[in-house]
Specification:
two-stranded antiparallel ribbon; about 50% helix
Length: about 240
């Protein structure tokens, strides 16, 4: 299927995407789920890309047909500065991506847990896009299930803070956001610095070498060097 065909599919009707996907032959459905976000991004169709990545039908179908990680990577397409997506909408997509990251282990084991995972992590959000997503997730769940009445799982907002508290063995003395806005470096009394993914809260790297408490850290403007201050010496 050509890029124009994928885009035409979305432009005709995004509201009944689930129905359209269900009518497709399996191979075409998988190809559509796999490639549609990329084609929309390449065509700079920012509005449709945002709608697609915030659409519960698409999210549910891609998790079911493919794998959570493939869906999670789709959200990186919306981070391109070439796409005219307002910051408010980018923030919504970052929250959805963060919730999916936190839920990925559960979804790999049981893909039917998607509504519970999204509701448990995002249901207290005041963001309109997030509210629409969780409302749709709630309506799609049928039968007997454990419905969250309040947010009961770690949200994307909390993941880094909680990981900081558990990732270091002692007190965190300083933290600085890197120029790319996607990573954070923390300095701790456990004599280490750690580089974190700001959205997922995952540790990307642990920097060792100090023999005493690390009290401060700074980043050069180009983001290539970190300067740390410790009770032992400067690095």
């Amino acid at each position: 299927m050509q890029q124009s065909d994928y885009i035409s599919l979305v432009q005709k009707s995004m509201s009944n995407l689930s129905e359209r996907l269900a009518k497709m032959p399996p191979d075409l459905r998988r190809a559509t789920l796999q490639d549609l976000p990329t084609h929309l991004a390449e065509a700079a169709n920012a509005e449709r890309l945002h709608f697609l990545l915030a659409n519960f039908d698409f999210i549910e179908a891609k998790v079911s047909e493919l794998a959570p990680q493939e869906l999670i990577e789709d959200y990186n397409l919306a981070k391109s500065p070439q796409l005219p997506i307002p910051e408010e909408r980018r923030k919504s997509l970052r929250l959805i991506q963060g919730a999916l990251r936190l839920s990925s282990n559960t979804l790999n084991q049981d893909k039917k847990q998607l509504p519970e995972q999204l509701l448990g992590r995002l249901m207290d959000s005041k963001d309109y896009t997030i509210q629409s997503l969780t409302d749709h997730a709630l309506k799609r769940k049928t039968g007997i299930w454990l419905r969250p009445l309040v947010r009961s799982l770690i949200s994307p907002h909390e993941s880094l803070l909680r990981n900081l508290q558990s990732g270091h063995n002692q007190v965190v003395n300083a933290m600085v956001v890197m120029p790319d806005g996607q990573r954070v470096i923390s300095a701790s009394n456990d004599n280490t610095l750690k580089i974190w993914d700001l959205e997922s809260g995952a540790v990307l790297s642990t920097l060792e070498g100090h023999t005493d408490w690390v009290k401060a850290v700074a980043i050069t403007p180009d983001g290539r060097l970190a300067i740390s201050a410790s009770r032992d010496e400067w690095h």
